[in-house]
Design a protein that fits this description.
Length: 317
């Protein structure tokens, strides 16, 4: 549709150009310099327009959804990216993309705008929830006003499935995130395998216990000294007992210069001990948007392959 509109605009402008050239010398349209002039003017005035229009042929749509959280009694925003060919007549797989500590729902689309191309490339819907400044994506056991596990699993996802044409099954749903969002993605997926079929993490805080004084964790869980049980029950690395082989498609990555590299490597080793299939990638890099903007390309491909395998299984049945 957008291609057709762009093409018609270009054809119309070329038509106007031809009229303009004829008016330069209406009595001698056969003069040989006119075709050359026509080509020059097209290149000067319309080639940039053609290039710009070409760049817009595939352009995912970015919406801001306003959802109401009954559990927290407030409105919460989320970015929703739909592919260029989005149609209510089709259903689309969904990737939930979580931001890090001190971020918000707009982080991914503003700091890694290339994710919009992934929506078109893999024909998926991307949803970027707001996890507040430092929710860590769980329901706080010490502050009932922070209930982000409930919000995402019981309020946001039903909203997305109601208002967009989604594949509303665990096989059509994946979740990943960076840093705090990497912890949140695994936390939610490990605990809700009935909702998510695949999960990823980028530079994730997959074991929060080594950081008792950082990133508002004590505000969400209580101090480690006074409430160690809260820390033990809400750190990703202690939740792998919920996993069985192939119950969840898992991928995660961390830069070797990242302060979370050690805990990610430890999670990898524990998953190996329990024979839980997964992909773990380490490469040079730190806790930066440069790393995450690159990492999401690989995780999106991982999820795409997961979705495709499900489609092939369904077609074979």
């Amino acid at each position: 549709m957008r291609f057709r509109k762009s093409f018609l605009k270009i054809q119309f402008l070329i038509f106007i150009l031809n009229i303009f050239i004829q008016k330069i010398n209406p009595m001698t349209p056969h003069i040989s310099f006119l075709p050359l002039l026509r080509r020059i003017l097209i290149q000067i005035f319309f080639l940039p327009l053609i290039i710009f229009s070409g760049n817009q042929l595939l352009a995912a749509k970015v919406d801001t959804a306003l959802t109401y959280s009954q559990s927290m009694k407030k409105n919460i925003k989320a970015v929703v990216i739909t592919p260029d060919n989005y149609s209510k007549n089709n259903s689309y797989n969904v990737i939930y993309l979580l931001h890090g500590y001190s971020g918000n729902y707009a982080d991914w689309v503003t700091k890694a705008p290339g994710i919009k191309k992934l929506s078109d490339q893999y024909n998926v819907i991307l949803v970027c929830p707001d996890g507040n400044f430092g929710s860590w994506y769980f329901d706080s056991p010490v502050d009932s006003s922070w209930r982000y596990e409930t919000y995402i699993t019981k309020e946001l996802i039903p909203y997305i499935d109601t208002h967009y044409s989604t594949n509303a099954s665990r096989k059509g749903r994946a979740i990943t995130g960076l840093s705090m969002g990497g912890h949140g993605a695994f936390y939610l997926a490990f605990r809700h395998q009935d909702i998510f079929g695949a999960a990823g993490s980028m530079s994730g805080g997959v074991d929060i216990r080594p950081f008792p004084l950082n990133w508002d964790l004590s505000k969400r869980l209580g101090s480690f000294k006074d409430h160690p049980e809260n820390w033990e029950k809400n750190t990703d690395i202690n939740l792998i007992y919920l996993l069985t082989p192939n119950s969840l498609a898992i991928t995660f990555t961390c830069g070797t210069e990242d302060f979370f590299y050690g805990v990610n490597k430890e999670l990898h080793e524990k998953l190996l001990e329990r024979n839980i299939p997964h992909e773990f990638t380490s490469r040079p890099g730190g806790h930066t948007w440069t790393f995450w903007a690159n990492a999401i390309q690989y995780e999106a491909l991982f999820f795409h392959n997961y979705f495709n395998s499900n489609d092939k299984e369904q077609a074979a049945q």
